[in-house]
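Hey, I was hoping to borrow your eyes for a little while. A protein chain has come my way and I'm curious about its shape. Take your time with it, there's no hurry, and the full record follows here:
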Amino acid sequence: MRTMLLRKNVIAFACAGVLLLAALSGCTTGPSESEQAQQANRDYMAQVNQSMESLEAKLGSFIDAVSRGDVVNMRTQADNAYAALDELAKIEAPEGLEDIQTSYVDGTNALKEALDDYIALYTEIESATADNPFDWTSYDNRISQIKSKYDEGIGLLQSGDNAAAAKK
């Protein structure tokens, strides 16, 4: 009889332990929706930051090629910059950050146009001949337009950064 009573106590104790473990495991479920959203935002901004760093280096190489008037290297460096711009544009924004991503995409498109315009201008200059000279009277105006488009792209990227900083 005593062993039967002991068995009942052991079984009751084991059941209580199982119930306690079940209750505790229910309390330790994964991160909350708010924590998941914050992590998604941090991951997004980390990807954006990495793309921006890559873009900055590639634009620096492009600007160096422009300063040397090296059209072939401008094309190469522009293609490298386009890859960084495309990476930035492809990043999927989490819910609530879509407006920031729109600024980044618009900025990348403006920068691509500016780079293409720089290359077109310098290609025209390089390919000018005595029979078909470059029209230097249009140079200042074209450079101004290209710079304006470039500044617009940089401004849109900065606008995205500012909007992201405001949401922290």
